[in-house]
Amino acid sequence: MPAYDPSNIFARILRGEIPNDTVLETPHTLAFRDIRPQAPVHVLVIPKGAYVSYDDFAANAPDAEIVDFHRAVARVTRDLGVDLDQGQGFRAITNAGEHGVQEVPHFHLHILGGRSMGRMVQPG
Ligand code: 5GP
Q1: Which mutation among 44, 52, 54 tests ligand 1's pocket best, with the greatest number of atoms within 8 A of CB?
Q2: For the chain, what percent of residues have pLDDT higher than 90?
Q3: Cβ-based neighbour number of residue 41 at 10 Å
Q4: 102 in Cβ contact with 110 (< 8 Å)
Q5: pLDDT at site 124
Q6: Percent of the chain with pLDDT strictly greater than 70
Q7: Helix (H, G, I), strand (E, B) or coil at 45
Q8: Does the residue 123 lie in any domain?
Q9: Which of 42, 50, 99, 108 could form a disulfide with 34 if both were Cys (CB 3.0 to 4.6 A apart)?
Q10: Residue 118 resides in a domain
Q11: In a domain? residue 3
Q12: Is 108 one of the annotated active-site residues of the chain?
């Protein structure tokens, strides 16, 4: 696992150095709108802890942070009306590393909805 780079843009958002459009904040998790939305709903859910990627978070975060993160995802889908009780669903994506084409090296889950998201993976 590469070392966590505390200068990445999401670390700067967490430190309050850069503004963000917050959707939800919990003790261990922040959700905010993507600056370049790919769908009518495009929210990034990130842990406040320093984790490079999903596998880093899943392997190394304390249980309380993992539970908080996933409960936050559920609240975001409900609050934005894309959950299956109210809406027509969503896609959750996390990119990791070079082959995942991860731009920001702080674990984040994209929540995309508000339209059909089409096929899951386009030809590379
Ligand atoms: P990745 O390719 O790492 O999975 O996705 C990174 C995402 O972060 C991209 O969708 C990009 O638009 C978003 N992003 C990059 N910089 C900023 C920023 O300063 N603010 C917000 N809200 N989103 C950002």
Answers
A1: 44
A2: 95
A3: 22
A4: no
A5: 65
A6: 98
A7: strand
A8: no
A9: 42
A10: no
A11: no
A12: yes
The rounded distance, in Å, linking the Cα atoms of 43 and 112 is: 7
Q: Which domain holds residue 30?
A: 9-113
Give the CATH number, domain containing residue 62.
Answer: 3.30.428.10
Q: How many angstroms is it from 44 CA to the middle of ligand 1?
A: 8
Catalytic residue among 28, 42, 106, 108: 108
Q: Which atom of ligand 1 is nearest to the CA of 95?
A: 4
Q: What is the pTM of this model?
A: 0.97
In the predicted model, is pLDDT for residue 112 greater than 80?
yes
What is the layout of strands, in order, in the sheet containing 29-33? 22-25, 29-33, 41-47, 109-113, 90-93
Residues near ligand 1 (Cβ within 6 A):
9, 18, 20, 32, 34-36, 95, 101-104
Reported residue count of the chain is: 124
- Run of H or E including 74: helix 63-79
For residue 52, report the distance from its CA to the centre of ligand 1, in Å. 14
Whether the CB-CB separation of 90 and 77 falls below 8 Å is answered with: yes
